[in-house]
Every structure is written in structure tokens, then in C-alpha cells.
Write a structure and sequence with these properties.
The chain is α/β, with parallel strands linked by helices. The chain contains 12 helices and 12 strands. The strands form 3 sheets. A 6-stranded parallel sheet has the order 2-1-3-4-5-10, sandwiched between helices. A 3-stranded mixed sheet has the order 6-9-11. Helix 5 packs parallel to helix 7 and helix 11 crosses helix 12.
């Protein structure tokens, strides 16, 4: 039997990377074709002890060792860890450079849209989108065979976004600076990232050069409390969506200790979703066939 192809997974102990590893290992066909090499920025985490390799995604020396012999790479970075767009950009570029150097055949980049470009500069502060988009552009500019996994809005973020209603402490509100009809593409990042990425892994020729929109479907903001009620049963009874203004939203965020610039970033994140669409108003009718995703 021929040697298995090496599949390097960054963020192996995180939500996306962990999901990718679990999905590949649980699929007999994928597990037979690929051998996983997990990379984590923090090898002290308990989950890291079970991985076959450890490395840091910051410097090229570590990356050269980590990526040696790799056929496919899944790369994800975490802007919110340091809230530093230049650091995230450099991390992504370093990964791309070494992928080019060692001859990686498929780099699956976890990216997002360039919001500044999409909105013609109206919302220039959504750094956690833009920095990833700039990495994607760099990857393509240097000729690394690649495709981009574009996760939707994390469903896991929702619970922390519900708050007791002042007028009815036993009811919850979901308050955002957007109309109730704003379409939001949701994804269960822990459960579904691996399913999307595994399909990209196994169908390399169909997705090369394409963006795969990784979300279950679009849901209106007003639909979210209904989902919350289904999940939470008693606690979710009477939950409702409320549109709030920019200052109220930012005030809530800064009240939790978030810096003002980060609150502005998250406000613009919500605002551009309504005006321009999380995925640029692109349809997700392709979901049953990832090969038809946008290029």
C-alpha cells in the first residue's frame, strides 16, 4: 500500500482545526488516504498531547519543519487572540511562503471577505475579515494551489448574545444594530467545519481556486430567538429580537471591557452584513455541491 499523504492541520486543539481532525479520522476513506499532522500554538494544552506534531505558526523555521513532506494544509489563524491584524497577516503569509517552498499541493485557507473592498471603503475597520482576505490574495499571488474555506457566523456565539429583558427578567432579548430581516449565515463551527473541509480535501480538483461558503443557510435575525427557544425550552420562552442603535450596541460592548476600536469593528461587522451581506449577498444554493462555489 502506498504511503499516506500528509495532511497538516493548524489550530489542531481549536474549534476549526479540531473539527477537521475529528471529521477526517472518522471517515474511513479520508483516514486511509491521509495521515494527519496536527499543529498547535500552545503545546501545553491537554488536547495537544495526543497530536503527532507540535509547532508554532509564527516563524518560518518552525513552519519549515512542520510542513516538510505535507501534501495538503488546513491553515487557520485567530485574530481575536491578540487583536492584531498585522500579526495575523504575517502569520498567514509565513504559512503561504513555506507551503510554496516545500511544494504543498493544496492549501485550504480559513478566510473571510475583504469588507473594505466589498463596501467601497464604507466599513474599513472589520479587521478580522480584511486581514484574512489579504492573506488569501497573497496566497493566490504567489501561486500556491489553494482554496478558501469561508465559515459563516458561529452559532456558538449566540448564547452569550442573549440577555434578560429588563421589563421581563425571565425572558431574553437578542439585540443587534440591524433590521430583523437581515440574513445571517450560521455555521456550527465545532460540528460542521470538518464536514466542509473534508469535502474540500477529498475533492481537491473541484475546489482549487474557489471559495467555499461554509454555512447551513441564511436566517433572518428575527429567526434567532425562535431557534434559541427551541434549544433552551423553558429559558427561551418569550425570547425576542430587538434592533438597537450604534451607540447602544457599542456601549454594551465597551461595558464588558472591550476596547472602543474593537467595539467599532464589531459594530461595522453587523452593519455591513445588513447592507452588503456576510457573503456579499451570494446565494448558497450550491451547498449540495461544493464544487460550484464561487471562484
Amino acid at each position: 500500500m502506498a504511503d499516506k499523504k500528509v495532511f497538516v492541520v493548524f489550530g489542531a486543539t481549536g474549534v476549526q482545526g479540531g473539527s477537521v481532525i475529528n471529521s477526517v479520522l472518522s471517515d474511513p476513506a479520508a483516514a486511509q488516504e491521509f495521515r494527519i499532522r496536527g499543529i498547535t500554538r500552545d503545546p501545553t494544552k491537554p488536547n495537544a498531547q495526543a497530536l503527532t506534531a507540535r509547532g508554532r505558526s509564527h516563524d518560518k523555521a518552525s513552519l519549515t519543519t512542520a510542513l516538510k513532506g505535507a501534501h495538503t494544509v488546513f491553515a487557520v489563524t485567530n485574530y481575536w487572540e491578540k487583536m492584531d491584524r498585522e500579526l495575523e497577516l504575517q502569520q498567514g503569509k509565513n504559512i503561504a511562503d513555506i507551503c510554496k517552498e516545500v511544494g504543498v499541493q493544496h492549501l485550504i485557507w480559513s478566510g473571510l471577505l475583504d469588507v473594505t473592498k466589498l463596501t467601497n471603503g464604507k466599513y474599513p475597520h472589520v479587521y478580522h475579515f480584511d486581514s484574512k482576505a489579504h492573506v488569501e490574495s497573497y496566497i493566490r499571488s504567489i501561486g500556491v494551489p489553494s482554496s478558501t474555506f469561508m465559515p459563516g457566523f458561529y452559532m456558538s456565539n449566540l448564547e452569550s448574545m442573549f440577555n434578560p429583558a429588563p421589563q421581563a427578567p425571565h425572558a431574553y432579548t437578542f439585540a443587534l444594530p440591524m433590521p430583523s430581516t437581515t440574513p445571517i449565515p450560521f455555521v456550527d463551527a465545532a460540528g460542521d467545519t470538518g464536514k466542509f473541509v473534508k469535502a474540500m480535501l477529498m475533492k481537491r480538483d473541484q475546489v482549487l481556486g474557489k471559495n467555499v461558503l461554509a454555512a447551513t443557510d441564511y436566517y433572518g435575525a428575527a429567526d434567532v430567538p425562535k431557534i434559541f427557544e427551541l434549544v433552551k425550552k423553558e429559558a427561551g420562552k418569550g425570547a425576542q429580537f430587538i434592533t438597537i442603535d450604534k451607540d447602544t450596541y457599542k456601549g454594551f460592548l465597551t461595558g464588558t471591557g472591550l476596547p472602543d476600536y474593537a467595539a467599532q469593528e464589531l459594530y461595522e461587522n453587523m452593519a455591513f452584513m445588513d447592507e452588503f451581506g456576510y457573503y456579499g449577498k451570494e446565494s448558497m444554493d450550491w451547498n449540495d455541491s461544493p464544487s460550484t462555489a464561487s471562484g
